[in-house]
Amino acid sequence: MTTPIPSIDQLQTLALPAPVSYMPQTWGWWALLGVVLTGLAAWGVRAVWQWRRNRYRREALQRLAQLRAANDPLGTLRELPTLLKRVALSMPGPQVAGPLQGDAWQDFLRSHSPRPVPEDFSQQLAFLAYAPDEQLLALPDTQRQQLVETCTRWVEQHHVAV
To answer: Is 109 in a helix, a strand, or coil?
Structure first.
């Protein structure tokens, strides 16, 4: 007995199953979608608000990068105290940094920095602002770099009360 060999003519079209909707069938999925979209919108609004709020910080860091690239040690050292004071004045919040000097300025810098600042940082900044050019140029390169790095680190990392 021989079994017949199947032929292509014997194939039949299979019936397709009924289409399934991708729409959620219960109200819980709609509620979850609403919560997720609301959360994403709130996160986006907060991110934009924080980005706009930190504009002063980005501009100060850009200016510090320009000062480093300018390769003008005297101009860089002279501008550091002014730049730090401008950053402190631009910080959002109730801080009043304008009239601060000496120990009060040192306390302000220390209280807003997550990392320790040098104990005589405000005196170093005053020296940079008012010392004669010859004394500034006589500073060792390591001390100059350390001052610029300390200022850059403070601008990058200082915290602001919300």
So the answer is: helix
